[in-house]
Write a structure and sequence with these properties.
With 135 residues, this protein is an alpha+beta fold. The chain has helices spanning 7-29, 37-76; strands spanning 82-85, 90-97, 101-107, 110-115, 119-123. It folds into 2 domains: 8-71, no CATH class; 77-129, SH3 type barrels (Roll), CATH 2.30.30. It contains 2 helices and 5 strands.
C-alpha cells in the first residue's frame, strides 16, 4: 500500500495507453475491406453470375433435355406404333402425312388426323391393356 512504484512499473501503464492510441488511429485508417465502386460492381456481377448458374441448372437444362426427348420421339414415330396423345387419346398410327400430321385409329373405322406434336408417348404392346373392341 505504501510501497513506492518503481520506474518500470510506472512505464507499463503509460506504454499500454500509448498502444491503445496507436491501435485506435490504425483502426480509423484501416477498414476490414475497401468499398470501392469497382469492388461493389465485381460483387454484383459475381452474384448475377451465380444466379444465372443456378437458373441454368434448375430450369433451362432440364427443359432442354425434355425438348430433345420429345424431338427424338417425333422422329421415331412409325406406322403401327401404339401412341398416347397429350389429350389422353390412345390409338394406333395408321398413316404419316408429311412431317406434321399423323392419322391415328382409336377404334375400328374411327381415324383422327392430328398434329405430330400432339403425340406425347409411344405405348409398348405389353402395357396396352384393353381396346375399345374388347367389349
Amino acid at each position: 500500500m505504501g510501497q513506492p512504484m518503481t520506474a518500470a512499473a510506472k512505464d507499463v501503464p503509460e506504454a499500454s495507453a500509448d498502444a491503445k492510441d496507436v491501435s485506435a488511429q490504425a483502426g480509423i485508417e484501416q477498414t476490414p475491406y475497401e468499398l470501392s465502386p469497382e469492388k461493389m460492381m465485381m460483387d454484383n456481377l459475381f452474384i448475377l453470375g451465380m444466379l444465372f448458374f443456378i437458373f441454368y441448372f434448375i430450369l433451362i437444362r432440364p427443359q432442354q433435355k425434355r425438348l430433345k426427348i420429345q424431338r427424338d420421339l417425333m422422329k421415331s414415330l412409325q406406322k403401327g406404333n401404339k401412341v398416347m396423345t397429350s389429350g389422353g387419346i390412345i390409338g394406333t398410327i395408321t398413316k404419316l402425312e408429311g412431317d406434321d400430321v399423323v392419322v391415328v385409329e382409336v377404334a375400328q373405322g374411327v381415324k383422327l388426323r392430328m398434329a405430330r406434336s400432339a403425340v406425347s408417348e409411344i405405348i409398348s404392346d405389353k402395357s396396352s391393356g384393353e381396346t375399345a373392341n374388347d367389349n
